[in-house]
Design brief:
The structure is a single chain. 76% of the residues lie in helices and 0% in strands. It has 23 helices and no strands. It has helices spanning 3-6, 18-40, 46-52, 57-60, 62-74, 78-85, 87-106, 111-125, 128-139, 145-173, 178-181, 183-197, 212-232, 241-263, 277-306, 312-320, 322-329, 333-339, 342-363, 370-397, 404-446, 450-457, 462-499. The longest helix has 43 residues, at 404-446. The radius of gyration is 23 Å and the shape is globular.
Length: 516
């Protein structure tokens, strides 16, 4: 079973059927699952990683953002890579590289090593997300494309939920290194599944020239932008000349990148897909909705651990409830798409996530029980599936067949970059808001000396009373800051829900076009 046979190209997609289709679809879904999982598996493990490498928790978040930005750089290149080297060949190379860098991350002994290998992991993992979509559309019969996208969307929904559970349990019971080591056996299984099941699905290749200028511009603007996000909080944002310089560089090179890619005949990123109104509107909605959704995946576990005393494992269990209704709804959504306008489903789904954000703001406090915390997470899952599946279908169904890989790459680029941007902005807002609320509460307590008197009457010394009050105020301030954050998130989600109406109504029963 040589490489030549595996990578034999076919002009037309060859649809699979029966058991072979089921197994091949699951293999591709698992590849996407493991990549998305690694976006969140480190979230609840950041305190463990920071402690193990002797760095601050805020610095430890580089483990998350370095992976996200590396993916963001590589994802939009997927269309060019697939056309130049073949979809399946690019997929296999990325899969092997992802597994190798995962193991190297596990062996890291310094933050610098870990961040470097996470970048390598992200560069290899980036193309896997859109390529799994492209390959699924090649092997699934056209009438089953909505079901294929439902299977793909389910991995995007469930992986961020299982990530915190798995990461938390491993960090609490083993060590953080194993959150990376566990990728290796899964990648090996996927590799052999691809070799056995996907023979004959390779796409034709073109010897297209390398758009070196576009690639350099992309790396510079994304790199400068991500450095600005990573260092902004430490440097007090735009009061720092360094952060201002990063922002200016990012803005200038982004503008140059857009101009170059729109005028270059062999552009490395096909920005011309934005001429399709359905793709543009669905991508805007995806960026706003997923960025806001993902930021809660980052904030909630940290709040539960730092303020409520939850272990990483228990914080992961709270997060896991988001996956329950997501799994239940994903197979149902394709049938709903046959009866209703997909844009309406997207609007309802994103709006529902906004409602769940309001419920958090109203219900959550330092006295919240496990089920009070878990219920909004459970309800949210239905909304995530309801928007992800039709949104993906609208997006890829709006472009020409030969543009599918490029469109999938750009949409995933937007989703990945939105995650990194939201993480930086939300954690900054959350910290600042919590500090303001804490200061306000402390000011009110300073005007009520009887509180200290009562505590001393109960046997507290002055120092003990002050320490207890300080801890109480800090936790309460963090809780109030968290509820304020969720109200802001609800507003952004409403905007994201409304953005989908810019898209033209898809034809009834529309499905994504197959990629050639």
């Amino acid at each position: 079973m040589g490489a030549k046979g595996l990578f034999a190209a076919s002009e037309q997609p060859r649809a699979f059927h029966g058991v072979k289709l089921l197994i091949a679809g699951l293999v591709l879904a698992m590849a996407n699952f493991i990549v998305v999982l690694d976006l969140t598996i480190a979230n609840v493990s950041v305190p463990h990683i920071a402690g193990g490498l002797a760095v601050s928790v805020s610095t430890g978040t580089w483990v998350i953002t370095s992976y996200a930005v590396a993916e963001a750089i590589c994802v939009p290149l997927t269309g060019w890579l697939a056309q130049r080297f073949g979809t399946l060949r690019t997929f296999v190379f990325s899969l092997v590289g992802f597994g190798l860098f995962s193991v190297l991350c596990g062996f890291s002994s310094t933050l610098g090593m870990l961040v470097a290998f996470r970048i390598g992991q992200g560069l290899c993992g980036g193309p896997l997300m859109p390529l799994t979509q492209t390959l699924m559309l090649r092997i699934f019969p056209k009438e089953m494309h909505p079901k294929a996208m439902a299977l793909w969307a389910m991995t995007v929904v469930v992986a961020p939920i299982l990530g915190p559970i798995l990461g938390g349990w491993i960090s609490d019971n083993w060590s953080w290194h194993w959150i990376f080591f566990i990728n290796a056996p899964i990648i090996i299984a996927i590799f052999f599944g691809v070799v056995i099941m996907l023979r004959g699905t390779e796409t034709p290749t073109e010897k297209r020239p390398i758009d070196a200028t576009g690639l350099v511009l992309l790396v510079i603007w994304v790199g400068a932008f991500q450095i600005m996000l990573d260092k902004g909080r430490e440097e007090d944002w735009f009061s720092s000349p360094f952060i201002v310089a990063c922002a200016v560089i990012a803005a200038i090179f982004f503008a140059l990148f857009v101009i170059w890619e729109l005028t270059e005949e062999d552009a490395i990123v096909n920005l011309k897909v934005f001429r399709h109104g359905g793709f543009s509107a669905s991508t805007l909605s995806l960026i706003l909705a997923f960025g806001t959704y993902f930021s809660s995946v980052v904030v909630i576990p940290q709040w539960l651990q730092t303020s409520l005393g939850y272990t990483a494992t228990n914080a992961g269990f709270v997060m896991a409830f988001s996956g329950v209704l997501a799994v239940v709804m994903s197979p149902i959504v394709p049938n709903l798409m046959k009866k209703f306008d997909p844009r309406l489903l997207v609007f309802i789904g994103v709006s529902w996530i906004g409602v769940c954000s309001v419920l958090r703001a109203l219900w959550w406090s330092t006295d919240a029980t496990f089920w009070t915390l878990a219920l909004p997470q459970l309800l949210q899952g239905a909304g995530v599936s309801l928007f992800m599946v039709p949104l993906t279908t609208i997006s890829l169904g709006s472009v020409d067949p030969e543009e599918t890989a490029s469109a999938a790459g750009i949409a995933n680029f937007g989703r990945t970059l939105a995650s990194a941007v939201a993480t930086a902005l939300v954690t900054t807002y959350w910290s600042n808001q919590a500090r303001m609320d804490t200061a306000q509460m402390a000011g009110q307590l300073n005007g009520a000396p009887e509180v200290m008197t009562r505590m001393q009457e109960r046997g507290f010394s002055v120092d003990q009373a002050r320490a207890a009050l300080e801890q109480l105020v800090t936790n309460q301030g963090m809780a109030v800051g968290t509820t304020h954050l969720f109200m802001v998130a609800a507003v952004v989600l409403l905007l994201a829900a409304s953005a989908i109406w810019i898209a033209p109504r898809p034809p009834k029963g529309a499905a994504p076009a197959a990629s050639h």
